[in-house]
């Protein structure tokens, strides 16, 4: 039994029952693929169910307010995906009459849809013979065929895509694509896969050469930047709070947060108190400042490590545009701020 048939047989016996696999609706498949970028299935599934319940069609998503979309997305990270999702929904609904493009080439023209997502939608919805190549596929192919190409290199995507295209059965493209991705997710896992029970073990070159844990090769390391965020929780006489919308480009664009002082390094309480007084003393009459978390919260993003602390700043009188706790919790926040508000603010 050859590589492709073995994978498909394994998949039919072992696949997870996931809602986007029980449909060829391109809207649902597109939603799931965008959500599962950089996200595990277990984490993404509740979001998929929430989105399809709140926005049953692409028209519902297109007509939604951006803050509603961001609030539902809260905690899933990489928020540019949500903004692109919303913009693409508007384009499909209002420019294409609610009908998604039915081929790989045209799907690539949609904002936020790259080669992998376009291939997934084209094969799963329209059975187009086009291979999907994600991290799981890199891993399965590099191990089985003993490919030492650095998957972070410029030519890797082309090399692996051509190999996958040669393997994909012309009459079963959707099934093959689902199978190889699921195989990488469940069986040919990154660390310590159980090769003894693997249906491909007789032909796997990495297993024969004792190289399973060396493949795939990825040499480029992501450079991580450390940032230090000091959030100021201003509280007025009415116990109302001041928020700001993060309009600048970069992380958390269009999400809400407390007023922020970012510093070059972690500074002590006296220093941050002085900075708060210098920056806000002319705007508010500050009565007291106290830290709300003893140690900084480390929040890891793909290219940044954020060291976050919250300080309660009690001010006299009533702050302009301040809002109540009850109103505040309906706003879309980065998950680290949302968790603080829910667990530690009151």
Automatic annotation (TrEMBL):
Family matches, as CDD domains: ENDO3c (cd00056), NUDIX_DNA_Glycosylase_C-MutY (cd03431)
SMART domains: ENDO3c
Residues covered by the HhH-GPD domain: 35-186
Entry-linked Pfam families: HHH, HhH-GPD, NUDIX_4
Reaction(s) the record says it catalyses: Hydrolyzes free adenine bases from 7,8-dihydro-8-oxoguanine:adenine mismatched double-stranded DNA, leaving an apurinic site
Cofactor mode of binding and number, as noted: Binds 1 [4Fe-4S] cluster.
Essential cofactor(s): [4Fe-4S] cluster
UniProt keyword terms in alphabetical order: 4Fe-4S, DNA damage, DNA repair, Glycosidase, Hydrolase, Iron, Iron-sulfur, Metal-binding
This enzyme's EC code(s): 3.2.2.31
Homology family: Belongs to the Nth/MutY family.
Protein name as annotated: Adenine DNA glycosylase
Organism: Flavobacterium gossypii
Highest classification ranks of the organism: Bacteria, Pseudomonadati, Bacteroidota, Flavobacteriia, Flavobacteriales
């Amino acid at each position: 039994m050859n590589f492709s048939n073995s994978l498909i047989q394994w998949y039919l016996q072992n696949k997870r029952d996931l809602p986007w696999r029980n449909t060829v609706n391109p809207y649902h498949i597109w939603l799931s693929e965008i959500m599962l970028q950089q996200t595990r299935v277990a984490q993404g599934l509740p979001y998929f169910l929430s989105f399809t319940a709140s926005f049953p069609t692409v028209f519902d998503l297109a007509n939604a307010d951006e803050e509603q979309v961001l609030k539902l997305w809260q905690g899933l990270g990489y928020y540019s995906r949500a903004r692109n999702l919303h913009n693409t929904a508007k384009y499909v609904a209002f420019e294409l009459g609610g009908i998604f493009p039915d081929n790989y080439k045209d799907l690539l023209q949609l904002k936020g849809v790259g080669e992998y997502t376009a291939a997934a939608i084209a094969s799963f919805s329209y059975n187009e013979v086009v291979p999907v190549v994600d991290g799981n596929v890199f891993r399965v192919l590099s191990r089985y065929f003993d490919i030492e190409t650095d998957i972070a290199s410029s030519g890797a995507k082309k090399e692996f895509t051509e190999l996958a295209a040669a393997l994909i059965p012309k009459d079963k493209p959707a099934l093959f694509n689902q199978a190889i991705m699921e195989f990488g997710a469940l069986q040919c896992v990154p660390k310590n896969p159980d090769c003894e029970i693997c249906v491909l073990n007789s032909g796997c070159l990495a297993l024969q050469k004792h190289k399973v844990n060396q493949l795939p090769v990825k040499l480029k390391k992501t450079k991580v930047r450390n940032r230090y965020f000091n959030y100021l929780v201003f509280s007025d006489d009415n116990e109302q709070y001041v928020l700001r919308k993060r309009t600048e480009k970069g992380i958390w664009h269009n999400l809400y947060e407390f007023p922020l002082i970012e510093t070059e390094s972690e500074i002590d309480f006296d220093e941050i108190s002085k900075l708060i007084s210098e920056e806000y003393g002319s705007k508010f009459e500050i009565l007291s400042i106290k830290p709300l978390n003893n140690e900084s919260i480390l929040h890891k993003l793909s290219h940044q490590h954020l060291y976050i602390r919250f300080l309660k700043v009690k001010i006299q009188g009533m702050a302009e545009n301040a809002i109540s706790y009850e109103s505040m919790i309906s706003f879309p926040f980065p998950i680290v701020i949302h968790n603080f508000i829910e667990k530690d603010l009151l």
